[in-house]
Amino acid sequence: MKKYNLDLKILSVERLSATHVVLKLTSPDPLPPMVPGQFVELLVDHSSTTFLRRPISINFVDIAANELWLLIAAVGDGTRRLSSLLPGDTVNCIFPLGNGFTMPANPSSRVLLVGGGVGVAPLLYFGKALQEAHHHATFLLGARSAKDLLELDLFNKYGRVYVTTEDGSQGEKGFVTDHSLLQSERFDQISTCGPKPMMVSVARYALEKGIFCEASLENKMACGVGACLCCVEKTVEGNQCVCKEGPVFNVKDLLWHV
Amino acid sequence: MARLNVDIKDLRLKNPVLTASGTFGYGLEFADFVPLDELGGIIVKGTTLAPREGNDYPRMAETPMGMLNCVGLQNKGVDFFCESIYPQIKEIRTNMIVNVSGSSPENYAACAERIATLDRIPAIELNISCPNVKDGGMAFGVTCQGAASVVSAVRKVYPKTLIVKLSPNVTNIADIARACEAEGADSVSLINTLMGMAVDIEKRQPLLSIRTGGLSGPAVKPVALRMVYDVAHAVKIPVIGLGGISNATDALEFMMCGATAIEIGTANFIDPSVTMKVIREMNAWLDRHGVRDVREIIGVIA
């Protein structure tokens, strides 16, 4: 897919929690095609400590409104600066980067989307694409506490939503892989994004059950286009760039100790 | 519109702007952002005789106005380059230059000899300065004798333009440059990355898998500039300057200090189109100052 280097304008900023915002971006021209699972490299201006771009996954694309949504967790200087942008500001974006999630080959597939923390971000856009293709999305979303669960109202539009929290403040108490849903239902495909220990557990479940499973990784990266070879992950094909060969990988190809 | 072309021995550059090895892939990765034919040249990823997996992740740490990397020359080897990469890049209408690395004078030479057979590769850049590999790399670039041994071995088998990329992690870089010139190098490029470290204080561990890495980006520019100035005054062969160049002002500084051409590296990660901006703005500066030929500004600082 052709990549673009564009200044996008911020239409609105929605604060989801103390540390999470959704930036809604637009452009005077129609936004380029983007698939669920791809990401954007954002330039952080006017900082002496944040030198590199920040890779942020595509949360949602509203084609009719010509909007690109990015869900950002303010974890360091760069993401804090991005989180404090205001409507009317512009942000330079290189996108769309990387490869997206695989759309199921069989009609009416039952797809489980497992997200943890800010890792839920790319699953929203994938859920929409699955619904449009007449598949059945089920979301299993985990967080530390009820206040950390993000965009539940939106996920509800595209499929059934199940929740776990580590403190039991909403949904079942524990980790996503402890959820009773995994014992009571069978899925044709699993997509996961979130903390690595969570994705490893999801991969273990999928491999045990023989279910096709993809994970979206977020290794530290610089260029975003496969040039610097910094964000590598060990795979059956040797070291591969998360930015170019990923960020979505079939878990069978990863040399994880599941 | 000033005249921008410069020569590195027999290598004719349509402008002085090259891309630094390891920061621009094989050029193809940047084709959506840069009209590749308009570059002075593209120096592709470090290539070794045998494939290398490189170092473990994490290989990169962001630092103030720069970054550390310890990639460790990950590449699929010279055979893969010749058979699978070369056919994809040979039609790019600019100078495609291969960065060659190794672990002994013999395997540097063997790799260079393979590259010499490729019609559309008019030059190599010999990497005797990679700080991230144990076997070879920088080991050759930190002594005059080591540098001379590699340049001499490669010069015997490589008839085209031979550029040698120097390490800044030395006591006197001008001495190393003289040793390369004496063995028949056609040009020297400098600087490779400066060795550095960064620590995660919460984990009480280095941020890089092999502890140390090479520092690049604007943070190194003043150091690089001083070294280019020193080397340009020590050798007669053309000098190629690099180290933190991010705009035309930086590029012109290096040229005024004696660089015939420049390489842009880490800045490609921040702005993938930066090379075109540098060429355009260099041109505009020359026009504004009534300079008809970019060569008039090379080494104006005595």
TrEMBL record, chain A:
It comes from Prevotella illustrans. Gene3D superfamilies: Dihydroorotate dehydrogenase, electron transfer subunit, Nucleotide-binding domain of ferredoxin-NADP reductase (FNR) module, Translation factors. This is Dihydroorotate dehydrogenase B (NAD(+)), electron transfer subunit. Binds 1 FAD per subunit. Binds 1 [2Fe-2S] cluster per subunit. Its cofactor is FAD; [2Fe-2S] cluster. Residues 3-103 form the FAD-binding FR-type domain. Belongs to the PyrK family. Pathway: Pyrimidine metabolism; UMP biosynthesis via de novo pathway; orotate from (S)-dihydroorotate (NAD(+) route): step 1/1. [2Fe-2S] cluster binds at residues 223, 228, 231, 243. Heterotetramer of 2 PyrK and 2 PyrD type B subunits. InterPro entries: Cyt_c3_hydrogenase_gsu (IPR012165), Dihydroorotate_DH_ele_sf (IPR037117), Dihydroorotate_DH_Fe-S-bd (IPR019480), Dihydroorotate_DHASE_ETsu (IPR023455), FAD-bd_FR_type (IPR017927), FNR_nucleotide-bd (IPR039261), OxRdtase_FAD/NAD-bd (IPR001433), PyrK_electron_transfer (IPR050353). The gene is pyrK. SUPFAM superfamilies: Ferredoxin reductase-like, C-terminal NADP-linked domain (SSF52343), Riboflavin synthase domain-like (SSF63380). Keywords: 2Fe-2S, Electron transport, FAD, Flavoprotein, Iron, Iron-sulfur, Metal-binding, Pyrimidine biosynthesis, Transport. The keyword S-adenosyl-L-methionine does not apply. FAD binds at residues 54-57, 78-79. Responsible for channeling the electrons from the oxidation of dihydroorotate from the FMN redox center in the PyrD type B subunit to the ultimate electron acceptor NAD(+).
TrEMBL record, chain B:
Substrate binds at residues 45, 69-73, 127, 192-193. It is an enzyme of class 1 (oxidoreductase). It is found in: Cytoplasm. SUPFAM superfamilies: FMN-linked oxidoreductases. It catalyses: (S)-dihydroorotate + A = orotate + AH2. Pathway: Pyrimidine metabolism; UMP biosynthesis via de novo pathway. The active site is at residue 130. Binds 1 FMN per subunit. Its EC number is 1.3.-.-. Keywords: Cytoplasm, Flavoprotein, FMN, Oxidoreductase, Pyrimidine biosynthesis. FMN binds at residues 21, 45-46, 99, 127, 165, 191, 217, 243-244, 265-266. Catalyzes the conversion of dihydroorotate to orotate. This is Dihydroorotate dehydrogenase. It comes from Prevotella illustrans. The lineage of its organism: Bacteria, Pseudomonadati, Bacteroidota, Bacteroidia, Bacteroidales.
